[in-house]
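Bumping with the actual sequence this time:
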Amino acid sequence: MARVDELRLMAKVAQLYYEKGLRQTDIADQLDISQATISRLLKRAQQEEIVRISVSTPLGAYTELENDLETTYGLKEAIVVDCVSNDDQILRDIGSAAAYYLETTLKQNEVIGISSWSSSLLATVEAMRPLPRQLGARVIQILGGVGNPSAEYHAVHLVRKLAVLVQGEATFLAAPGVVGSAEARQIYLQEQYVREAIAQFEHVTLALVGIGSIEPSRLLASSGNVFSPQELEVLREQGAVGDICLRFFDANGVPVQTPASERVIGMELDQLRKVRRSVGIAGGERKLAAIRGALRGHFINVLITDLYTARALLASSADSVANAADKRAH
């Protein structure tokens, strides 16, 4: 076939497909050409620039920013939410985005691990709609939820409501997130229901976690599952910038171990790294260093955050690269 004839056929096929809206099978029947040839011609039409496809990004969507975050931090997915610079509004907006993410990505027989005492996770569950079908899902509490009775309600509510929304079974971790001593922790770990819940951590396929700064949130502080000011000071001295499930790490994502670590009942950071989808839902200036540390430690592979935090995460990464280049030059 002469090149001009092939180009003419490409243009005809492209017009029928993109402008007339015909299916490839219909075009194949109309032109007496195989569907495989139609598919090949459509690809060639793009290569020859007969067809130019452009994506018009709607207002409030930041796909390029999300792609940059994914590339910079090695994420499966980043979701950036446009919102005002207000902590309460950020919580609601990223919670709504996280709810939609769950509604559209939950898979059959998913084992969902969810942390306790997280305002962002509470906002997510409150924004979520019930799934229209059963998926055989299970919901596992991955951080102890026993604490102050008025605050403990939030931890139980979080796990139970998510299980209802996904039409799944709930497994509660019937222990505090922080106990009084390492010896007390060992006693709790001997309890049958605590043992059985922790044994399920290895089967979690989707982990939902908040990311905390050194200073505990209002919800966490009210639960009673907090470390003393002296213990927090030791963590700061060791370089800790944040935590996931009360497991602390430094600015480079290296876990920080102190005697306080032996008092936590919940998922370990190494376990979290192995989860197929570990979703961090967090935002706001107060948590920037913690989110950055969590990303560098690869404790999460999906991040749902706000626009301001996303830009700051990329700016700090660019600064780090520039500083490293300066050091090598000198």
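The tokens above came from a reply further down the thread. DSSP finds 14 helices and ten strands in the chain.
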